[in-house]
Every structure is written in structure tokens, then in C-alpha cells.
Amino acid sequence: MKYISGNDIFPKELLKEIQAYAKGQLVYIPKPKESRKKWGENSGNRKYLDCRNEKIIEKFNKGTTINQLAEEFYLSVHSIKKIVYSNRCI
User: Fold this and answer.
1) How many angstroms separate the CA atoms of 2 and 28, rounded?
2) Engineered SS bond to 15: which of 8, 10, 49, 76, CB 3.0-4.6 Å?
3) By the 8 A CB rule, do 75 and 82 touch?
């Protein structure tokens, strides 16, 4: 992340107010929550994992065993169980 001088981006009045709280310190200003993206949205990983998990659930519902799914998708038995059972209605 690149640092930007407060002199370059804040109006003088606002900069003086910020300096009253944090003189000479590095301050991180986060994005507003509504503009944050969820994990994996930029890279496409979230979409990939959702698709993979749907395939796992579909195969499980058709009778493929948890051990077979773990082998096929290169995941642990525990991970397969979490995927399959967290998406089932009880």
C-alpha cells in the first residue's frame, strides 16, 4: 500500500483536526463497510469454491461417499463433511 501525505488529500481544516488526534503518526483510514468486497470477489475464488461445493453436494446426494469425494476433490474427509452437512436442512 502506498502512503499519501495528508497535505495532499485533506482540506487544511480537516488536516488540523486530524493532527489534534494523531500528530506525525501513520493512520490507516479504512473503506466504508458498504464499499468493501467480500473475500474472493476480486479474484473469482469465491465463485470457483461455490461451484465446486455445489458439485460436491450434488454428487453426495446422488450417492457418492464422503471418502470418494475427498479423493476426487483432493480435500480432507472433514472438509467434505463440512461442505455437505452445512448445506443440508435438518
Assistant:
1) 11
2) 10
3) no
